[in-house]
């Protein structure tokens, strides 16, 4: 008899965004006339940068002729892309990362979900609260937690992120082996300073822990003092893996390209204490279970680093950051405390009431979709995440409607 | 201290195709003048069908305007593609599969590697020998085997496929819970008849086992009596998951699109005997760990089902099948027994000697790359897999060179 993975039974309810989609559909059936504005899931709305469009067309044309046709590429990604990434995203910022330490993939969600497979099931995992649910759910599925107790899983070390600590996870009281960090943060929009990241790197080195650093929103950093990559921090190459994505940077949510950085210095340990290269382990996993990213898509990602591409991506992210400033200012004017929104497309609003109740209020009274913070963890029970990914006109309209609804 | 997944240490050597690539590189350094012909890895060589090219360009153009821009799509794939698949690939053949039972993905390698995550680690897994290594390696990584003993893993039930049984896996002596089947087969090119598949479906129903049916080479079937889908077999909806791919059909190895079929009737069991829907379980996995296939790529896959697309794909596969016939006839003329090559792009040649030795011989004497059967399992120790994925001219040249080399 074929038995299921027993850990799946521990998973709570359905996935956050599916819940939201269901409630929005119900609202649309009740109010088919309402013009909905979505500031929820964090999907981009603006067209792809022209440099990427051009690269896509050119690459597709290469596939029309046997002489320039490309079939299977390297599972890790083409050198043209890995080299552009290493040069522009890391070396240009003084972060010592080589092209062969880059693993191109079809999404940071996949990478961040897959990476935990490399580790034993009995390691102790630290998860910020609030948090992107994928970090938690993939560890539940893998059997690294006990049962769910209300809104938390037994066996996970939760790192509360609240107004008191500026929404930045603090070092844990008891030793942990694997730590998920995200800066600029999803969902809070908070950013980690160099000193805060250094403290985590020092911690990981002292305890032989590993940091999974999610930098999917790096392109929104405007403050020159903030690190863009964890590899700007001395010692990080030994204890950190970094995840990046073109989804929010260049509008690739529907095009699909991302990458993971696994430095050759990065080690984990066998039960007998022998060091194992995470680069080798991830390479084995990646080549066995993945077949590379679509060739035209890799060319589009390469175009992000061209002079035109960089300018166009900057204009895109500047636009979303203007929206973020509008949202932040709007909620603050209503007397609701906010974090994020300056180096991040997300604004984390302390609503002063139950998050799903506030979500329902915005939906019913303003026809605006936000994301209830409760879906990201216990510490989000009074918060909502507002996303700046929409047109300027929609964001301004949404903020006017919200102001009226809350007046 | 961060401990690694101990099961990765059991994995033998490196991945088959990486080994081959290394030997080929060494040969090219020794003989930089040699014009290599690759009949090895099974990568396609002919350009994409024009219908797919046109669909790609059109979809890319949609991404240039906010009004037609598409960001995140449904993780399971767009309805336009799922409906085309259900209609053309299944319903048209009398296989009762609905659009919402299709899960679009970026590769059959990923699907077939990921699917085992849904099951408990102590299930008993049956694997044909020879076999596509991904079935084995992903179960090793998940901890479903013991250590490797020479060329096999403890705890797996191997199903030998030899000349005696026509290279078709027979029902096992002891009960198994999960069975991997592939028809037309990679690597042997053998196909399973309706009666053979029915026997497996009946077995799975009797033992509450599950069949993972890999039909990535279905488009090469020309014999009207052979089933294209396991769902043509009565009862299969309850006990089988099927994997398909556009890689070999429409030349998508570098474009990346595939799908899995998980019927709503398909069940697995909790330890307490309660039935669990595999459709629901896979949907949870897919939405948590995957973010959908690139939108232009899904449009290209849809175009495979247009009247032009179907004609163009037929012409492509016809061409490769002509090559296969040439290869098969060539080896048979040399007195080497073959299977496959009529409803399959692969020819499995019984070389009468050690497979890696024969691989080295073809490389050194004919500058032709094949795949040593030993890389697919113990039963392939005397075989090589020859792939028909190349131009007609190259295949003819390769067969001439091989005939000379072996003369």
UniProtKB/TrEMBL annotation, chains A, B:
Aminotransferase class I/classII large domain sequence ranges: 35-402
GO BP term (any one): lysine biosynthetic process via diaminopimelate
InterPro entries, per the entry: Aminotransferase_I/II_large, DapL/ALD1, PyrdxlP-dep_Trfase, PyrdxlP-dep_Trfase_major, PyrdxlP-dep_Trfase_small
Keyword Mitochondrion appears in the UniProt entry: no
Catalytic activity: (2S,6S)-2,6-diaminopimelate + 2-oxoglutarate = (S)-2,3,4,5-tetrahydrodipicolinate + L-glutamate + H2O + H(+)
Enzyme Commission no: 2.6.1.83
Record carries keyword Transmembrane: no
Any one Pfam family match given in the protein's UniProt record, by short name: Aminotran_1_2
GO molecular function list: L,L-diaminopimelate aminotransferase activity; pyridoxal phosphate binding
Coiled coil regions, renumbered to chain: none
Keywords per UniProt: Aminotransferase, Pyridoxal phosphate, Transferase
Pathway terms, separated by semicolons: Amino-acid biosynthesis; L-lysine biosynthesis via DAP pathway; LL-2,6-diaminopimelate from (S)-tetrahydrodipicolinate (aminotransferase route): step 1/1
Domain of life: Bacteria
Enzymatic class: transferase
Cofactor: pyridoxal 5'-phosphate
HAMAP family, alphabetized: DapL_aminotrans_1
Protein name: LL-diaminopimelate aminotransferase
Taxonomic lineage from the root: Bacteria, Pseudomonadati, Pseudomonadota, Betaproteobacteria, Burkholderiales
């Amino acid at each position: 008899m074929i038995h299921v993975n027993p850990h799946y039974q521990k998973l709570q309810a359905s996935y956050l965004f599916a819940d939201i989609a269901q409630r929005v559909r119900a609202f649309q059936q009740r109010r088919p006339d309402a013009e909905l504005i979505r500031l929820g899931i964090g999907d981009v709305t603006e067209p792809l940068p022209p440099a990427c469009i051009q690269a896509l067309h050119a690459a597709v044309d290469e596939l029309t002729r046997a002489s320039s046709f490309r079939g299977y590429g390297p599972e890790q990604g083409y050198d043209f892309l890995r080299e552009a990434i290493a040069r522009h995203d890391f070396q240009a910022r003084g972060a010592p990362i080589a092209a062969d330490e880059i693993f191109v993939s079809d999404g940071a969600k996949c990478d961040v979900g897959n990476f935990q497979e490399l580790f034993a099931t009995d390691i102790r995992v630290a998860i910020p609260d609030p948090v992107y649910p994928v970090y938690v759910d993939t560890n539940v599925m893998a059997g690294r937690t006990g049962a769910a107790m209300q809104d938390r899983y037994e066996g996970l070390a939760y790192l509360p992120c609240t107004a008191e600590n500026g929404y930045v996870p603090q070092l844990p009281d008891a030793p942990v082996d694997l730590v998920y960090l995200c800066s600029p943060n999803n969902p809070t929009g908070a950013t980690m300073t160099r000193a805060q990241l250094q403290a985590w790197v020092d911690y990981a080195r002292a305890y032989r822990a590993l940091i999974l650093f999610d930098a999917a929103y790096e392109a929104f950093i405007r403050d020159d003092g903030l690190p863009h990559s964890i590899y700007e921090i001395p010692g990080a190459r030994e204890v950190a893996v970094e995840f990046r994505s073109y989804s929010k940077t260049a509008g690739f949510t529907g095009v699909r390209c991302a990458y993971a950085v696994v430095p050759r210095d990065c080690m984990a340990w066998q039960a007998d204490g022998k060091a194992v290269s995470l680069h080798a382990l991830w390479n084995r996993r990646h080549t066995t279970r993945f077949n590379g990213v679509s060739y035209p898509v890799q060319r589009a990602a390469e175009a992000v680093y061209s002079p035109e591409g960089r300018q166009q991506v900057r204009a895109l992210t500047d636009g979303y950051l203007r929206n973020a400033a509008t949202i932040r200012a709007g909620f603050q004017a209503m007397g609701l405390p906010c974090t994020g929104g300056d180096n991040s497309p997300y604004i984390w609003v302390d609503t002063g009431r139950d998050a799903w109740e506030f979500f329902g209020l915005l939906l019913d009274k303003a026809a605006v979709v936000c994301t209830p913070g409760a879906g990201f963890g216990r510490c989000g029970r009074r918060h909502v995440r507002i996303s700046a990914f929409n047109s300027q006109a929609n964001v301004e309209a949404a903020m006017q409607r919200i102001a009226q609804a809350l007046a």
